[in-house]
Amino acid sequence: MRLxxxxxxxxxxxxxxxxxxxxxxxxGDFYVGxxxxxxxxxxxxxxELAIETSSPVDKKKIADYFxxxxxxxxxxxxxxxxxxxxxxxxxxxGLRILNQDRWECLASFILSSYTNIPxxxxxxxxxxxxFGKRLALDNIEAYSFPSAEKLAAADIRSLKGLxxxxxxxxxxxxxxxxxxxxxxxxxxxxxxxxxxxxxLLSLKGVGDK
Length: 209
Hints:
By secondary structure, the protein is an alpha+beta fold. The protein has 10 helices and 7 strands. The strands form 2 sheets. A 5-stranded antiparallel beta sheet has the order 1-5-4-3-2, covered by helices on one side. It has a two-stranded antiparallel sheet with strand order 6-7. The protein is globular and about 45 Å long.
């Protein structure tokens, strides 16, 4: 499916390469990544996002993922009162916060402990290929991030075999908590910052940052 979205105050490179997500790769003038269970190609010409997906999707879902409904000028006006933040705004203008799948985002940052971005990407790609669904678009192949249920049932040795090391136990434990509904990620939406942070810190592998 192909679609386009008019966008202002947006920088695709800053947004996808700032370290907030680990599923995007650049190929020439476009990026390829996975959003939920869709393989996505995206390019930006300074005015419009040109998007191609492996399955049907409405524009609202794409706009929500890329944070396009946020009032970025209004946010800049408020946070730009700080001189250091003003410098960051100037350097990274157009960087949007992605609205990623909560489980995938949580698991990705548990994997990010004491390592670097290339290795994080490798661990996520390994988990996805082993336990996720195959996705295809044109001649490109990728895999969806596995569900909490899949990783909760995974053998710890299989996880370690994918290079997770000590993180394997954290991922499995957190996946079991989420799969069993002992921990509900949707509850975070109704909490204030301090309450949500306290709840997240109760999970193994989640620490202060």
